[in-house]
Amino acid sequence: MSLVLDAATQDLLFREARTANTFTDEPVTDEQIQAVYDLIKFGPTAFNQSPLRITLVRSPEARERLVPLMAEGNQAKTATAPLVAILSTDNEFHAELPKLVPHAPGIADAYFSARVVREQVAPINATLQAGYFIIGIRAAGLAAGPMTGFDFPGVQKEFLDEDHTPLMIINIGKPGTDAAPFPRLPRLAYDEVVTTV
């Protein structure tokens, strides 16, 4: 075995972790989400661009605006999850590059001055960060229910602006007793995925 993580941690983050469809009533605190972010912010992105933005849906009024924008099969679980996070890409991420890449002060203008370029690279790197975010949620002892079944233009109009593009929505909390009602689906084997050249 060449992994450094102990088996229990591997189980927590990967083998036993499941997408949650139901949750307990236990709240998810701002401190928990900050701890998750303070861990996952170290995951790599191209040029350290870090384009992921997270909007926490906490108020009942915001939840009432969000639920009708979810696909029908996602509405009930989004209505009852302790916390819902809207993950989006910041298409103006280049404004932060002087802070994020201080050793290369001209990088924003050299590579990312065109909006069309930013809109191509931001979703790739924000999706990387979304994966880190899900692992961070699991590391906090919580479960994640990531979803892309929602009205993307509606969520953008209701919660974001033209500089932020919705990426996914994640329900977060302690998993309920029937959180994952189906058996884990198969995964591809190593030799089906990895090719050596």
Keywords:
197 residues; alpha+beta; four-stranded antiparallel sheet; 42% helix; globular
**Can you count the beta strands?**
4
Give the number of helices: 9
Low-confidence stretches: none
Give the helices and strands as they follow along the chain: HHEHHEHHHEHEH
**Multimer state:** single chain
Major sheet attributes:
4 strands, antiparallel
Helix content estimate: 40-55%
Q: Major sheet: order of its strands?
A: 1-2-4-3
Overall pLDDT score: 95
Calculate Rg over CA atoms: 18 Å
> Approximately how much beta-strand content do the residues carry?
5-15%
Shape: globular
Q: What is the CA-CA span between the terminal residues?
A: 24 Å
Secondary-structure-based class equals alpha+beta
Notes on the protein architecture:
It is globular, with a radius of gyration of 18 Å. Strands 1-2-4-3 form a four-stranded antiparallel β-sheet, sandwiched between helices. The longest helix is centred in the middle third of the chain and has 25 residues, at 115-139. With 197 residues, the protein is of the alpha+beta class. Helix 1 crosses helix 7 (115-139). The chain is built from nine helices and four strands, in the order H-H-E-H-H-E-H-H-H-E-H-E-H. Helix content is 42%, strand content 15%. It has helices spanning 7-15, 30-40, 60-66, 72-80, 97-100, 107-112, 115-139, 152-159, 190-193, and strands at 52-57, 83-90, 143-147, 164-173.
Chart the SSEs and their pairings:
Layout: H1 7-15, H2 30-40, E1 52-57, H3 60-66, H4 72-80, E2 83-90, H5 97-100, H6 107-112, H7 115-139, E3 143-147, H8 152-159, E4 164-173, H9 190-193
Antiparallel strand pairs: 1-2, 2-4, 3-4
